Amino acid sequence: MAAATVVPVAYQQGSPAAPEWLNKGDNAWQMISATLVGMQGMPGLVILYAGLVKKKWALNSAFMALYAFAAVMPCWVLWAYKMSFGHQLLPFWGKAGLAVSQDFLIPQTILPSTDYKNVSAAQPLYPTSTMVFFQFAFAAVTVILLAGSVLGRMSIKAWMVFVPLWITFSYSVGAFSIWGGGFLFQWGIMDYSGGYVVHLASGAAGFTAAYWVGPRLKEDRENFAPNNLLLALAGAGILWMGWTGFNGGDPFTANVDSSLAVLNTHICAATSLLAWTCWDVLFFKKPSVIGAIQGMITGLVCITPAAGLVQGWAALVMGLASGSIPWYTMMCLSKKLPLLQKVDDTLGVLHTHAVAGTLGGALTGLFAHPYLSGLFLVVPNSKGAFYGTRGGIQFLKQLAGAGFVIGWNVLVTSIILCVIKLLIPLRMTDEELKVGDDAAHGEQAYALAGQGQKENSTMISGNHDSVELQYPYV
């Protein structure tokens, strides 16, 4: 006689650990997607930044990304998640609240209520804790992307204060307005996975922050050769593959639209990389590794607001556009416009994220397919201009939505930095800037001298020359 199969209580259908509404496949995919997005920030952007900057800034740049990734989490669960996806306080702002209680995290995720009748089609079949983790990863990546504009001179102490303030007063507003049921969502703005909420916001805020913080030293701005391009390529690879979760997780289920979004993401990224490389060869006679990374990023950013809303041919067209227009603004226009010459945007975040994000949002207004939009969006009659006269209105709405995101981020980022400036200098001193990592952290990224001991460096006067951190494993 066969032994009876004993099913643990925790896994019986309808039990508290596996309620009837839970779809384990969707939950698993969403948690994997959240992890992929998180890995884009840590370690993806951490090592991308560490490799792209000058040697003396490798550690500081990596730490700015690492700190931001950690600092967002307590803000997110204590107040910012509900500001982004909770009840409305203002048409563009949600009410702050805790997202750490068991009673909130274990029940099924309920998306913010809207006026649209088919909202139930988008209700996720997994607990709120999965959604909180997934959306945390987006918030963390956004502020890390912003950091790319101010690498190589921003005071680490000012950065430590800036991160929680920006997440609270800037990111949460964009997230609520477009994703959380706010006025831009009600108006019908399309942003499938963050072309506006993440990339346009980080690009606009990063450029604004670069203006207020001020430029790097002249010698750094004129000669800022990457210290380790192979390391940068590794970070870029993590960023690219992590985008599978970035766009593939935003239908909130493992469905047909999710698969299409993943494929479109990689079509656009590859096409954009190739287009950017071709322009480099045509104008500069050599393919650039840094250029290829930039083209990859602009392709990923451009497809993000459209990933599950457009057909494959449109992803190809968007890849050609994202490998060409941001290339022109970065390589040509930035050398002509006085404002772009004045503001020291270290890694060109304005071009790779703000320009590419705006481009992607606008092209979504052209190419969004009515049937594909119906698989995901709860906004009725969503379609691009290519699919009817009313679609032309959608294109104009997309541009207006971009205008709000840009305006809010410029305004709020400026206010935050001006307030911080009253208490903490935004920029390191020129003496500190000459030293780099050792002045900011008392540490160096690479020990190249002798048997691994720290290189001799010209230290500055003050507290830095007498402080050296000691760890038991060093």
UniProtKB/TrEMBL annotation:
<keyword id="KW-0924">Ammonia transport</keyword>
<feature type="transmembrane region" description="Helical">
    <location>
        <begin position="263"/>
        <end position="282"/>
    </location>
</feature>
<feature type="transmembrane region" description="Helical">
    <location>
        <begin position="225"/>
        <end position="243"/>
    </location>
</feature>
<feature type="transmembrane region" description="Helical">
    <location>
        <begin position="158"/>
        <end position="180"/>
    </location>
</feature>
<feature type="transmembrane region" description="Helical">
    <location>
        <begin position="192"/>
        <end position="213"/>
    </location>
</feature>
<keyword id="KW-0472">Membrane</keyword>
<dbReference type="GO" id="GO:0005886">
    <property type="term" value="C:plasma membrane"/>
</dbReference>
<dbReference type="InterPro" id="IPR001905">
    <property type="entry name" value="Ammonium_transpt"/>
</dbReference>
<dbReference type="Pfam" id="PF00909">
    <property type="entry name" value="Ammonium_transp"/>
</dbReference>
<dbReference type="InterPro" id="IPR029020">
    <property type="entry name" value="Ammonium/urea_transptr"/>
</dbReference>
<protein>
    <recommendedName>
        <fullName>Ammonium transporter</fullName>
    </recommendedName>
</protein>
<feature type="transmembrane region" description="Helical">
    <location>
        <begin position="399"/>
        <end position="424"/>
    </location>
</feature>
<dbReference type="InterPro" id="IPR002229">
    <property type="entry name" value="RhesusRHD"/>
</dbReference>
<keyword id="KW-0813">Transport</keyword>
<feature type="transmembrane region" description="Helical">
    <location>
        <begin position="28"/>
        <end position="50"/>
    </location>
</feature>
<feature type="transmembrane region" description="Helical">
    <location>
        <begin position="354"/>
        <end position="379"/>
    </location>
</feature>
<feature type="transmembrane region" description="Helical">
    <location>
        <begin position="289"/>
        <end position="307"/>
    </location>
</feature>
<feature type="transmembrane region" description="Helical">
    <location>
        <begin position="313"/>
        <end position="333"/>
    </location>
</feature>
<dbReference type="InterPro" id="IPR018047">
    <property type="entry name" value="Ammonium_transpt_CS"/>
</dbReference>
<dbReference type="InterPro" id="IPR024041">
    <property type="entry name" value="NH4_transpt_AmtB-like_dom"/>
</dbReference>
<dbReference type="GO" id="GO:0008519">
    <property type="term" value="F:ammonium channel activity"/>
</dbReference>
<comment type="similarity">
    <text>Belongs to the ammonia transporter channel (TC 1.A.11.2) family.</text>
</comment>
<feature type="transmembrane region" description="Helical">
    <location>
        <begin position="132"/>
        <end position="151"/>
    </location>
</feature>
<feature type="transmembrane region" description="Helical">
    <location>
        <begin position="62"/>
        <end position="81"/>
    </location>
</feature>
<keyword id="KW-1133">Transmembrane helix</keyword>
<keyword id="KW-0812">Transmembrane</keyword>
